[in-house]
Write a structure and sequence with these properties.
Oligomer: single chain
Strand content: 15-25%
Shape: globular
Strand order of the largest sheet: 3-2-1-4-7-6-8-5
CATH class of the largest domain: Alpha Beta
Order of helices and strands: EHHEEHEEHEHHHEHHEHHH
Largest sheet: 8 strands, mixed
Number of domains: 2
Helix content: 40-55%
Number of strands: 8
Radius of gyration: 19 Å
Number of helices: 12
Structural class: alpha/beta
CATH topology of the largest domain: Spore Coat Polysaccharide Biosynthesis Protein SpsA, Chain A
CATH superfamily of the largest domain: Spore Coat Polysaccharide Biosynthesis Protein SpsA, Chain A
């Protein structure tokens, strides 16, 4: 089976590290993946060696449209999605390829772990962030993965499953464009497996101000999600909204840095 790796990019400096890591993966020369890079936005283009990679450019901003172009230009039976700041571990490529060649049904998909780079992993805020405002890997390890965990930082699917489907262009900025795609795949019968050892390292330092800004944008995208799929509730409504407000009030009884981060993050979901 041929494997295509699709990377939408804003032209971050980390992109070169991601590409070097892909080429340095175990069995790279045997698997020979097709690596497709899509620059999103006219101002984000940087020089990349086109001898090794397929380079495309779109003036349309947003990761979703860039992934769509990547899907259209790819030729592999397996489609793997990475970020331009998620650096594959040495055995990542082999694990992705082996999963799909042993789970041959078009409905079988693989979610891998997104960890921080070693330096960021030491920071308490990033430790908290990994299992709260960005990802939910502790919960996934206990309960398994579903469409809500369709994280395009490290995920792979069969081309046959996504046939005719594209990421919606109704989402702007960060949040929910990938999970909404995952929800539609789940309606096609996607079975999302999780492998915590199929790992990439997220090289993107963040702070609380960044996270709150992303969360407020994600709330707007969550409203779009609910408009597209009225059968779902993404934003807390009614009793759930009341319960969240109550938890925020009660959180003042347990002061810590982590609780302060959690409270501000959750309040961003309730702000208008």
């Amino acid at each position: 089976m041929k494997l295509s790796i699709i990377i939408p990019t804003l032209g971050r400096e980390t992109l070169e590290t991601v590409l070097e890591a892909i080429e340095g993966c175990d069995n790279y020369n045997r698997i020979r993946p097709e690596v497709i890079i899509v620059f999103s936005g006219e101002k984000n283009v940087r020089e990349i060696n086109e001898d090794h990679f397929k380079i495309f450019k779109t003036s349309v901003s947003g990761a979703g449209p860039a992934r769509n172009l990547g899907i259209e230009k790819s030729t592999g039976e397996i489609l793997a999605f990475l970020g331009d700041d998620t650096i594959p571990a040495k055995d990542w490529l082999q694990k992705v390829y082996m999963f799909h060649t042993t789970h041959t049904s078009q409905k079988e998909a693989l979610l891998g772990k997104v960890s921080w780079t070693p330096d960021l992993a030491k920071d308490p805020f990033h430790k908290w962030l990994e299992n709260n405002a960005q990802f939910a890997f502790k919960s996934i390890a206990r309960k398994g993965a579903n469409w809500r965990h369709f994280y395009t930082s490290n995920i792979s699917v069969k081309r046959a499953l996504v046939s005719g489907m594209r990421f919606s262009n109704k989402f702007k900025g960060w949040g929910f464009e990938d999970t909404e795609f995952g929800y539609r795949l789940s309606k096609r019968g996607m079975r999302l497996h999780y492998d915590g050892e199929c790992e990439v390292y997220h090289d993107h330092e963040q702070n609380l101000e960044d996270v709150l800004k992303q969360t407020k944008n994600a709330k707007k995208n969550a409203e779009v999600f609910e408009q597209l799929h009225p059968e779902l509730q993404i934003i807390p409504h009614g009793a759930k909204k009341f319960a969240l407000r109550t938890l925020i009030i009660l959180s003042y009884l347990y002061e810590s840095k982590q609780m302060t981060w959690w409270r501000k993050w959750k309040r961003a979901w309730l702000d208008k």
